[in-house]
Amino acid sequence: MTDLQHQAHAGSFGAVAAEYDKARPSYPPRLFEEIERLAGRPLRGADVLDVGAGTGIATRLLAERGARVIAVEPSGGMAAQLHAVSPGIPVVKGVGDELPCHDESADLITYAQAFHWTDPDKSIPEAIRVLRPGGALVLFWNLKDRSVDWLGEQERRHAAALPSYHYYGTMNAVTEPLSRYPLDVFGAKVRWERTITVDDVITDLRSKSYFAVAEPELRESVLADDRAWLLGLFPDGRVVEPYTVDLTVAVKPR
Hints:
This protein has helices spanning 3-10, 17-23, 29-39, 57-64, 76-85, 120-130, 149-161, 172-175, 198-206, 209-212, 216-233, and strands at 47-51, 68-72, 91-92, 106-112, 131-144, 184-197, 238-251. It is of the alpha/beta class. Belongs to the methyltransferase superfamily.
């Protein structure tokens, strides 16, 4: 993906914020237990920056576990949706490459489904600057299990139909830059699944950047084909989606 394409994809979410909030997957409780274990501290009472917070799917879960969370989000559309759903969570405009925060002001910096939109050569030093000693940079992604036949076939269908289709799969290429910095890096994987309707699958797809940037006629054609194909596979309209959450925790030395 070129820099211009990357920018177009990164800027596409504001227009699909409602779809994003409605149909994107949440995160299982065990993920937050793993974050606490690898970071070596409880979320309760922690000062957390949730960067690229989007509509606040992960932000709300962090707050529910007792963290003092500030959402950092560059998109006005996404931030407006977050505020509408969770007016008690403070939101500031900003990006991970240039955090609007004081030095050593956070215990945890989290990126849920968002770190791949940053420039690691900027966002990692920024995280180190803002984290307190012993604090942690926490990166996680919900990844669909593409080894499941229908999900693998769906990926092939989208790759063939959409010029800008991309699937990040493993995050190794994204998290590898962490090794260049004085951080103690740990990882874990958390498996879970959700059951949703075919309509929710389509809504979720609308929130993907490679659908959001597609020409409307092409987008609607691919989504209509997907709906018919999914109903052929799942006549009752109920779909089980298996996920693995890929978690990386990088701790700043004390």
